[in-house]
Design a protein that fits this description.
Elements: E1 3-4, E2 10-13, E3 32-39, E4 42-47, E5 54-58, E6 62-65, E7 67-70, E8 77-80, H1 84-105, H2 109-131, H3 136-156, E9 164-165, E10 168-169, H4 177-196, H5 202-205, E11 215-224, E12 232-241, E13 246-247, E14 252-256, E15 272-278, H6 280-284, E16 287-297, E17 313-323, H7 324-333, E18 338-343, E19 345-347, H8 356-362, E20 368-369, E21 376-385, H9 388-394, H10 396-400, E22 404-406, E23 422-432, E24 444-451, E25 473-475, E26 486-493, H11 497-500, E27 504-512, E28 520-529, E29 542-549, H12 560-563, H13 569-574, E30 586-600, H14 607-613, H15 622-628, H16 634-639, H17 641-654, H18 656-673, H19 683-693, H20 699-713, H21 721-728, H22 730-748, H23 753-772, H24 779-791, H25 796-802, H26 805-818, H27 827-842, H28 849-868, H29 873-893, H30 897-929, H31 935-954, H32 957-965, H33 970-990, H34 998-1022, H35 1030-1045, H36 1056-1066, H37 1069-1084, H38 1096-1103, H39 1108-1114, H40 1116-1129, H41 1133-1148, H42 1154-1168, H43 1174-1199, H44 1204-1221, H45 1225-1241, H46 1245-1258, E31 1265-1266, E32 1275-1276, H47 1277-1294, H48 1298-1314, ...
Parallel strand pairs: 15-22, 35-36
Antiparallel strand pairs: 1-3, 2-3, 2-6, 3-4, 4-5, 7-8, 9-10, 11-15, 11-21, 12-13, 12-14, 12-16, 16-17, 17-19, 18-21, 19-20, 23-26, 23-30, 24-25, 24-27, 27-28, 28-29, 29-30, 31-32, 33-34, 33-36, 34-39, 36-37, 37-38, 38-39, 40-41, 42-43
Helix pairs in contact: 1-2, 1-3, 2-3, 3-4, 4-31, 14-15, 15-18, 17-18, 18-21, 20-22, 20-23, 21-24, 22-25, 23-26, 24-27, 26-28, 27-29, 28-29, 28-30, 29-31, 30-31, 30-33, 33-34, 33-35, 34-35, 34-37, 35-37, 35-38, 37-39, 38-39, 38-41, 40-41, 41-43, 42-43, 43-44, 44-45, 45-46, 46-47, 47-48, 48-49, ...
Length: 2038
């Protein structure tokens, strides 16, 4: 049975629970739970994280904690009973854990590891705190460390700052806002401190401590590992100051035995000392620890004879030093001891023993000897800080070890009271003694005794060092054979104070003989008394003492015998009458010096002080003695403080009249002395004295009298130093007065009470008199007043002992009131005055409410004055915050209504005014300097804001009521409201409090919203009806809007725990303000119209806040606005315009979301439904909703890392919406410029120009002035339009779209002409001319076009389920484009078919992309059909201004004829029409309309033949009209292609398919079309005839064989068509000639002709020509055009372009009429290579139509596919645009672009992959010697090793020397084969295992295009060709081929060279490529000829040779390349010989 729990209420999960049982609650380790019920080992409750979810969990998974339960029952709350710091650490660690992981994800590794370290520290410290084993001090220290780390982490993670007091988080409700502000400041300060140094925060938490912190060294001797002495030793440690050359501490003595252990066994591990009281100044001194080692034993260590063994002497042994400066750093950082080893050095000369430590420090190594080993004294050091009490408390272990406290010589910086000390330090300096007739010097030992007056030797009054007990006699160490010893040994004499007077010291001198007896002989003595006759102690100085002779028999029993003698020179001068006949004779030549230093709190060396203490002995000198007290040092005074004070008051009582003033002055002097920091700690001594020892019961009368007398004199005296001193001593003077009166009162039972009261009254009158004096004229008076004001607040507490609170308050009020209230006095006085008020407010007096009521008015009066004049703002704010702090504390206990009322009356208005002034100042300064002046803004603003908020928070309903009632007029009320609203607005705008002060910001918001609720009723009541005031209302609305938009209130961004905390405490303040705002709007009534359209933007901002409730409240206001405007104007145009404007800017700032769009539409449509104007309303709301859709899409694009394309598409979409749907011109223009900028960024210059053109078209050529807009200045419309035109022309130029720029040039020219601006006219005409030149000369690529379909609901709104056509980038092919689109939409799936998608795809929640290439259908057909128009001009019109695109899909209808597929092959032709033509303002436009038609096989054939005829006609006419000069290549190729294809079955296939009787009978409707086809074929034969005639005319003599062959083949073609088409035998004469047998054209294995040598570069297109198929199968020709549209490569020696000859409207089913397969010249296939046939695929797949589905329709396309875009030359992308026509089609100029560098022109080309088909192949006869042209299908780019170039060119004809070469074209290669490095020798195989070979005739005069074809000079450079020097081997992949090799001769006189070459049988797989078959005879020498140079990097290339067998298996063979040119030369000579013989 479940029962409610009583005790078990709160626990922590100690093991994760997965909640696997029914109702189970999932719990993570470390979560906290609140337990509600229990049942048999299970609990039921909630996790604190998710309090809404209840569940059960096992009881043993929970660790219970004690907790306080409040509100028991269903809604009970539990708070754990643990230290609040622990709770905070727990919560903070949980919050950090989430953020910590994110740091790793965001690669903030450094912070990640730092935070991990801090978190571990926090966990450890928390564990310590929970253990409960710490002392209070330790708990405090642990908490300090915890809070420092918490604050550090919060700051670095960007979390909120936590305000604390004594480590506890403060509750903002319990303290005033001012205090909260200060806590934030101090927390921020501590965070900054902790970041820099965590260790120095200790003082911050205690009260401010002015005392300097003393330092202490703890030294412990671990061991003395120096065993060579073998005797007992004493080691003395002391601190030594090198600069001053003196010891600064007592000595610490350690006595060791001969083994190095302590002589006293109890001392083991206790040989330690504490050197105390080192000041910070001492720590900066150059201090050393010096250790002197004295051995105790024989005179000489290594000589056993010297001295008897039983006598021991103290003898110097060695010294060690350690620099404290060197080790300070290391011992400061650690908290424990650190070990050091001190080497002990021995002294070389004993006479210098007293300086040994200095010599070691100075490193005078000649004077000491280093030890033989590294051992020595091992000591440990530790640095401690703090006073002795603290040290004892914190380090009890040290004191338990019996540490020897070793004091400083002299007093520390701070003398602590109660520190009794009476030490005399005596240093044995030196002695000078006579030799005494001996040959050697003496060994002198000094013995010292302390004797009392009666001659008794004082016991234990001599200490050699701390750590050892004192002794009665002192024996100095002995220096061997030294009559002038220097000892320098310090001895401490701790003589009891009562035995000091009358004591003296006696020094006895003995000679220590080293003879056998070894006795010590006494030979003299010296003495000195410790006190002088006048009672002063021996002065701190060196005393040179007289030495008196004596011997062993002399007796000192009667000390009076020598005490009468003078002890030193001063003494001798003092008593000249000394009898000479005494027993002791002074030895005049001998002297002995000692120095003394007294450190005593009881004895003085000062005569004046002694005289004062014994004043009764000198009654006549009292005046003088009192006067001289000022000259006694402070140290002496504080030592005898109590005695002096007693004496002074006794003197005062003795004769008040006579000594009163002097005693008063002395008292003032002593009081002021205690204000010095050195003696500050004696103030408690003074206080104790007053309380317990003071006995001057009558003194008060005299003190009051003197004080009053001083004050009354202040008006007249010029020098007022003594008055000022008296004012400074006021506090203690009052203490004496009050205590004296109390004593008197006690003694007399309260007599003379009235007199006392009246004397105090009179004294206060004098004080007021001093303060009221005008001090402007007298500077001294100012100081007097200042001193008085400073001390004044300190006397309140004393007065409260004698008077009631009200009486004291009245005194104070009168005094403060007497100060001049005008702020005219100097600034310094103002400060003092305010400081005095501040201290009054901080005093105990002010904490009583009775006194506050009396004092507040006068305090507020002064503050009010200063605030009015903006003076001393910082101090005023301090006073105010103290007042508010006190009032807040009092308000928790009692009633403060009256005080708050006073403050509201006095301060509220002036506070607002002050804040406004400060804020406006700070804003203007920000504007001027760009930075805030900290004095003026941050600090002061924060202070005053907190004061204002404190006041507002204290105000209750009644206060607000009184405030509002007290305004005299509405104007005053209006002014007040405007001020307070303005301050509140600034508070939110200026963000006075930093972002992380969340507690402060929320409290501020809470106070503002409460205040506004009070004020809004006054606003509504006073300014609504007749007195409507727009300004106040506007101010109110602006405030409300700003308030709701505050970042700190946007709870959606906060973490869940933080959000819950805020909501629990304050609720959602945005909702409160929204309700307030809405009700105020409703209260406006008809005045609402004043806020339309002004408030639309702000209100819209509010509705965009992501808080559903706020949106629900605020959105209906728009309906209200529309309604009011509709009523007033009959429409709501203003609302509409403003809403649209503001929506744009707000959404772009990141506001709004999809939910808002839906809610906006829903709420407004619901409201509008009831209106009369609902239709216009609904359409408006709908269009705004649609705008929002687009804006949100736009924002998402811009915000994300979206690609340019998406952004551009989005912008175009939005721009069009603004133009077409809502007609907002300004927004439209803005987006035009945004779009233009995007285009420029993406380098779409043409599109950028078109975009700007939109704006340009809106402008007219008029002089209307235009305002400043965007980046345009204010100018006339004409100027703006001109500027735009120029810019657009510039962009068209950059985009190479000169044709579009030319009309603009003309437009500008007309304008300039009309204005007679000839300079501009000239410029624009030149520009136009340049553009014409550019069109003719510069290379331009024809772009690809792609159709893209975006299907699925996941796409942005503007793309969803739409199709677009996109203009590709330069060189971009289908694969690259597809890749780009998929990377732009990474979620998208590419569709693999071109069919239109069904509804399931359109409506699914996904993204589908459908992409294929399309062919442009140009509008301007006329230009393209003109014969004489150069192709460069035509190419522009083929791909620009295109609005229609075509896509052809081949398919079979009916049964498929395997013999001739053309019979059933249909074309499905899709035509797409776009909304705008390309190029335009975007690279892509939406498809507006699609049309689908089917083209029958016959129609297709007609189109193909027609296109080819047109192409031939164009080319022939160009040659006829001399447009093409010199080079007849193109014509040869074109004719050869058509004739040869026809022979191989091109036209024949059409004949078979369509002229067949079966076909004609089955398709009677096609008769007309068949006739048309026949006519076209006849026309083709005719055109070919004309072409051959032209060819005959221009053909080069060496190309005659080719011409002959063409004529032969033409005959065959004609005869094959003869019986079908009669009339073809009428040939032109040029065509007749003997027919070459077919077998001659084919070439088999065998030796090669020399002509074929030139064909060997295996990447040369010429080499490939042999392998291009010329299939007679119609199917193969279809496939070839489908899979690879061919590229024609020609040389550059043609004068004009002849591209037209290749231009035709292609379709995938072109017949094999020609080897170009009717594909236009620059067509390439963009299908993926997998979709194309390839040699490795079986035949049945190779021609599969299904695989060709996605192939583009064929058309003229750029050769982008031919170049791998990735290849970079010289770090720049290759510039292929220029290479296009030149390379492919026979360029018009040799080297078109002068800007093109050599490197750019020599672009490596990629190998191609192409599809092949079976069927017979035949080598294409090679063309003219002037150029190599290739026909090959370009395919996807593949990488190619750097430096491989495609074509080789050799100018081996003299006529060619003036024609510069063409650019290299690209390599063509089969796809499935491995990439082959270019080799100069390996020929390319015939493809697909066919029998295609290279024939001698075919290679008759072909030039191998060299890659070096980019010389600019017209003179050909010398030839250095490595590639053409090797025979080209005709080869075949079919090794079983039987055909014999039949050499073809061009003439009967073919040279023997050929024969010799033929005799070398050459098989493709065995011929060693790169090696020339050896000639059997030397060829004849030829004269040298000029050749074009090659690039050096082509000199040596390795080639690979490929052989294809029937199975297409590639075989690789390594080819060696000859280095020398010998063989090349041979080959070249042979080749040339052959030619010349011809």
């Amino acid at each position: 049975m479940w029962s409610p729990t009583e005790e078990e209420k709160y626990g922590v999960v100690i093991c994760s629970f997965r909640g696997t049982v029914p109702q189970g609650l999932v719990l993570e380790l470390g979560e906290t739970v609140q337990i509600l019920e229990k049942c048999e080992g299970w609990y039921r409750g909630v996790s604190i994280k998710k309090p809404s979810v209840k569940g059960i969990f096992p009881a043993n998974y929970i660790h219970l904690k004690k907790a306080i339960v409040s509100n028991r029952g269903q809604y009970e709350t539990v708070v754990p009973l643990e230290d609040s710091v622990v709770t905070e650490v727990t919560a903070t660690l949980q919050e950090w854990a989430v953020l910590w992981k994110q740091l790793y994800v965001k690669h903030k590794v450094d912070l990640f590891y730092k935070l991990r370290h801090v978190m571990n520290e926090l966990i450890d410290l928390r564990r310590q705190l929970l253990s409960g084993h710490l002392t209070q001090d330790q708990v405090r220290e642990v908490k300090r460390h915890l809070t420092v780390r918490l604050d550090w982490g919060n700051e670095h993670l960007g979390l909120d700052l936590v305000p604390r007091k004594d480590f506890e988080v403060v509750d903002s409700d319990q303290i005033s806002v001012s205090d909260l502000y200060k806590m934030h400041l101090s927390s921020r300060h501590s965070v900054q401190q902790s970041t820099s140094q965590v260790d120095t925060i200790r003082q911050r938490h205690g009260e401010a401590c002015r005392m300097p912190v003393p330092h202490h060294f703890f030294l412990s001797l671990k061991s003395f590992t120096y065993n060579t002495i073998g005797e007992d030793t004493d080691v003395f440690f002391s601190l030594y100051d090198v600069r001053e050359g003196k010891q600064i501490s007592e000595r610490f003595m350690v006595r060791l035995n001969k083994n190095g252990g302590p002589r006293n066994p109890e001392k083991i591990d206790r040989m330690c000392a504490l050197f105390t009281d080192l000041s910070s100044k001492d720590m900066k001194r150059d201090l050393y620890i010096v250790a002197h080692v004295i051995r105790i034993g024989r005179m000489l260590l290594n000589d056993s004879k010297k001295g008897p063994p039983h006598l021991h002497y103290r003898r110097p042994y060695g010294c060690a030093v350690l620099s404290i400066m060197d080790v300070l750093q290391s011992i400061s950082e650690i908290k424990e001891e650190k070990d050091f080893v001190l080497k002990v050095y021995t002294c070389n000369n004993e006479n210098e023993w007293c300086q040994i430590h200095e010599n070691i420090i100075r490193k005078s190594s000649t004077k000491y000897t280093a030890p033989s080993s590294n051992y020595g004294l091992i000591i440990s050091l530790q640095l401690l800080r703090g006073d002795m009490e603290q040290i004892r408390r914190e380090n009890p272990m040290i004191f338990n070890r019996g540490v020897a406290v070793t004091r400083k010589l002299g007093f520390p910086d701070v003398i602590m009271p109660g520190d009794i000390r009476n030490d005399l330090y005596l240093t044995l300096e030196k002695g000078d003694f006579e030799r005494g007739g001996k040959s050697v010097q003496k060994n002198i030992e000094v013995t010292m005794y302390v004797l009392y007056a009666d001659g008794e030797i004082l016991k234990d009054c001599i200490s050699l060092g701390s750590g050892e007990p004192s002794r009665s006699a002192y024996h100095s160490f002995v220096l061997y054979h030294n009559n002038s010893p220097r000892w320098g040994e310090v001895v401490k004499l701790p003589i009891p104070i009562d035995r000091f007077r009358g004591s003296h010291l006696r020094f006895e001198f003995r000679h220590c003989s080293t003879k056998d007896k070894g006795e010590k002989k006494l030979f003299g003595f010296a003495f000195t008394p410790l006190m002088r006759d006048d009672g002063t102690t021996l002065s701190d100085d060196i005393h040179e003492l007289y030495v008196y002779k004596c011997d062993e028999n002399s007796t000192f029993n009667n000390h009076a015998l020598y005490l009468g003698l003078p002890c030193c020179k001063e003494d001798y001068n003092g008593c000249p009458n000394i009898p000479s006949s005494l027993i002791f004779q002074r030895s005049t030549k001998e002297t002995f010096s000692v120095s003394t230093q007294l450190s005593s709190t009881k004895l003085t060396q000062n005569v004046d002080l002694l005289a004062l203490l014994k004043w009764k002995a000198y009654p006549d000198r009292v005046m003088d003695i009192l006067g001289r007290l000022r000259h006694v040092s402070g140290e002496e005074i504080v030592k005898f403080l109590q005695d002096i004070l007693d004496t002074l008051f006794v003197v005062l009582d003795d004769n008040t009249e006579k000594y009163g003033l002097l005693v008063f002055q002395s008292l003032v002097f002593i009081i002021n002395l205690l204000r010095d920091s050195k003696y500050f700690h004696f103030r408690p001594v003074m206080d104790t004295y007053i309380q317990k020892h003071f006995a001057g019961a009558l003194a008060y009368k005299e003190l009051i009298r003197c004080l009053k007398w001083y004050m009354d004199r202040s008006a007249e005296l010029v020098r007022q130093d003594h008055i000022q001193e008296a004012m400074r001593a006021l506090e203690y003077l009052f203490k004496f007065i009050v205590q004296s009166r109390i004593l008197y009162s006690r003694a007399t039972c309260g007599m003379e009470e009235e007199q006392f009261r009246s004397s105090i009254q009179e004294l206060f009158q004098s004080i007021r008199f001093v303060l009221s004096l005008d001090s402007r004229s007298s500077e001294t008076l100012i100081f007097t007043q200042a001193a008085l004001l400073n001390s004044f607040p300190a006397i309140f507490d004393e007065l409260l002992q004698m008077f009631t609170v009200q009486e004291v308050a009245e005194f104070v009020r009168g005094t403060l009131g007497s100060m001049p209230s005008t702020v005219h006095i100097g600034q310094s006085m103002d400060v003092v005055k305010l400081q005095s008020i501040a201290r009054t407010v901080d005093s105990r007096l002010f904490s009583f409410s009775e006194s506050r009521r009396i004092l507040l008015p006068v305090v507020l009066h002064h503050i009010h004055l200063h605030l009015r004049q903006q003076k001393e703002l910082l101090i005023c704010s301090g006073i105010l915050s103290s007042i508010f702090s006190i009032i807040k504390t009092s308000s928790l206990e009692g009633d403060v209504v009256e005080e708050v009322e006073m403050m509201v009356e006095s301060l509220l208005d002036v506070l607002l005014q002050t804040l406004l002034t400060i804020m406006s100042k700070s804003q203007s300064q920000e504007a001027v300097r760009g930075q805030r002046c900290p004095q003026c803004t941050a600090e002061i603003t924060g202070e005053y804001v907190s004061c204002l908020l404190s006041l507002l928070r204290q105000m209750s309903d009644t206060h607000f009521q009184h405030l509002l009632d007290n305004f005299q007029s509405k104007d005053e009320l209006k002014e007040f409201l405007l001020k307070i609203f303005c301050v509140f607005r600034n508070l939110m705008k200026m963000s006075v409090f930093p972002r992380d002060w969340m507690v402060m910001r929320l409290l501020t918001s809470n106070i503002i919203v409460t205040t506004v609720q009070y004020l809004s009723s006054a606003l509504h009541k006073n300014f609504t009806e007749t007195d409507f005031d727009f300004k106040v209302w506007n101010s109110y609305f602006s405030l409300a809007v700003l308030f709701i938009n505050q970042p700190s209130l946007q709870l959606e961004n906060a973490t869940p725990p933080k959000r819950k905390k805020i909501l629990d405490k304050y609720g959602d303040m945005r909702v409160m303000m929204a309700y307030e705002l809405f009700s105020m709007w409703q209260n406006l009534g008809e005045h609402k119209i004043h806020f339309i359209p002004g408030m639309i933007g702000p209100f819209l901002g509010v509705t965009l806040v992501p808080q559903p409730e706020v949106r629900n409240i605020m959105i209906p206001i728009f309906h209200d606005m529309m309604d009011w405007e509709q009523r007033k104007n009959g429409n709501f145009k203003q609302v509409e315009a403003e809403l649209i404007d503001k929506l744009d800017s707000l959404v772009s700032e990141g506001k709004g979301d999809e939910n808002y769009r839906e809610l906006f539409s829903l709420l407004l449509l619901e409201k509008i439904e009831q209106e009369t104007w609902r239709e216009t309303g609904i359409s408006f709301v709908t269009s705004v909703t649609r705008l929002m859709e687009r804006l949100l899409d736009y924002r998402d694009c811009m915000k994300g890392d979206e690609t340019e394309n998406k952004k551009i598409g989005c912008t175009v979409n939005l721009m069009n919406f603004y133009k077409s749907e809502i007609n907002k011109e300004e927004m439209y223009i803005r987006y035009i410029h945004k779009l233009c900028d995007m285009h420029l960024q993406a380098e779409n210059y043409t599109e950028a120009a078109f975009t700007l053109l939109l704006y340009c078209e809106l402008l007219q050529w008029e002089d209307r002035p235009l305002r400043e807009f965007l980046h345009y200045p204010s100018q006339s419309e004409w100027q703006r339009k001109e500027g735009l035109c120029r810019k657009i022309i510039h962009y068209f130029n950059k985009g190479k779209s000169w044709e579009f720029g030319i009309p603009l040039c003309r437009e500008l020219a007309i304008q300039y002409e009309s204005l007679y601006d000839y300079q501009s006219l000239s410029w624009i005409r030149k520009m136009e001319a340049t553009y014409y030149d550019n069109i003719m000369e510069q290379q331009r690529l024809e772009p690809e076009f792609f159709r893209v379909g975006f299907y699925g609901r996941k796409f942005p709104f503007f793309l969803r389920n739409k199709e677009y056509v996109c203009r590709g980038h330069d060189y971009e092919r289908l694969e690259a484009f597809q890749q780009r689109m998929l990377s732009e939409f990474p979620q998208a799936i590419a569709m693999q078919h071109p069919n239109h998608p069904d509804d399931s795809i359109l409506q699914c929640d996904a993204q589908y992309l459908q992409i294929y290439a399309v062919t442009p259908i140009p509008d301007n057909i006329d230009v393209l059909q003109m014969d004489r128009v150069p192709d460069r001009i035509k190419s522009f019109y083929r791909v620009n201004n295109i609005r229609k695109f075509r896509y052809d899909r081949p398919f079979h209808k009916g049964p498929k004829d395997k013999e001739n597929e053309f019979k059933s092959l249909w074309i499905e032709r899709t035509t797409l029409t776009l909304t705008h033509s390309l190029p335009g303002i975007s690279r892509w436009f939406e498809v507006e309309r699609r049309e689908l038609v089917e083209v029958s096989p016959l129609e297709n054939a007609i189109q193909v033949v027609e296109n080819k005829n047109q192409e031939l006609r164009t080319l022939i006419s160009q040659y006829q009209h001399k447009q093409m000069h010199g080079n007849i290549n193109l014509l040869s190729m074109c004719l050869n292609g058509v004739i040869d294809a026809a022979v191989n079955g091109g036209i024949a296939r059409y004949q078979e398919a369509f002229f067949d009787k079966d076909y004609i009978t089955k398709h009677p409707g096609d008769a007309e079309k068949i006739t048309q086809l026949k006519e076209l074929m006849q026309e083709q034969v005719h055109v070919l005839g004309v072409g051959l005639a032209v060819h005959e005319k221009f053909v080069h003599p060496e190309m005659r064989p080719l011409h002959k062959k063409l004529i032969d083949q033409f005959q065959m073609m004609r005869s094959s068509l003869y019986h079908e088409l009669p009339g073809l035998d009428k040939l032109s004469p040029a065509c007749s000639g003997s027919s070459t047998p077919r077998s001659n054209v084919l070439v088999s294995h065998g030796p090669m002709s020399p002509e074929s040598i030139k064909l060997v570069h295996r990447h040369s297109p010429l080499n490939m020509l042999g392998s291009v198929r010329h299939s007679s199968s119609s199917l193969s020709s279809h496939t070839s055009s489908e899979t690879g549209n061919l590229v024609i490569l020609t040389d550059s020696s043609v004068g004009e372009t002849a591209e037209d000859m290749y231009h035709m409207q292609a379709s995938p089913s072109t017949s094999s009429l020609s080897s170009t397969h009717s594909a236009p010249s620059q067509m390439i296939n963009s299908a993926p290579s997998s979709a194309r046939g390839s040699p490795s695929l079986p035949d049945k797949y190779r021609h599969s139509r299904e695989m060709m589905m996605l192939l583009p329709a064929h058309r003229d396309r750029p050769s982008s596919a031919m170049y791998p875009a990735a290849i970079m030359e010289n770090g720049q992308p290759p510039n292929f645009q220029r290479a296009l026509i030149q390379q492919m089609i026979g360029p018009c100029k040799p080297c078109s672009d002068p800007n093109l560098s050599v490197a750019e022109k020599a672009v490596p080309a990629a190998p191609s992959s192409w599809s092949l088909d079976s069927g017979s192949r035949e080598a294409l006869p090679f063309l003219s010697a002037h150029a190599g042209s290739a026909l090959a299908p370009p395919v996807p780019p593949r990488s190619l090793p750097h430096g491989h170039y495609s074509l080789h060119f050799d100018a081996f004809h003299h006529q060619l020397s003036d024609a510069p070469p063409a650019l290299p074209a690209r390599t063509l290669r089969k796809s499935p084969l491995h990439p082959i490095p270019a080799s100069p020798t390996s020929p390319q195989s015939g493809l697909d295992g066919s029998n295609s070979t290279l024939s001698g005739s075919a290679s008759s005069g072909v030039s191998s295009l060299s890659e070096s074809n980019f010389g600019h000079s017209s003179e050909p450079p010398p030839r250095t060709d490595t590639m053409d020097s090797v025979p080209s081997q005709a080869w075949n992949t079919d090794e079983d081929l039987e055909t014999p090799y039949l050499p073809v001769r061009y003439s009967l006189s073919e040279p023997d060279v050929l024969e010799s070459l033929k005799s070398q049988p050459c098989r493709s797989h065995s011929a060693p490529t790169g090696v020339i078959p050896q000639d059997t005879m030397d060829p004849p020498a030829l004269p040298p000829k000029p050749y074009h140079s090659r690039l050096p990097n082509m000199e040596n290339e390795e080639g690979m040779m490929i052989e294809d067998d029937d199975k297409h298996r590639p075989l690789h063979r390594k080819v060696s390349q000859p280095v020398s040119g010998g063989k090349e030369e041979q080959a070249r000579v042979a080749w040339e010989h052959g030619i010349s013989e011809q």
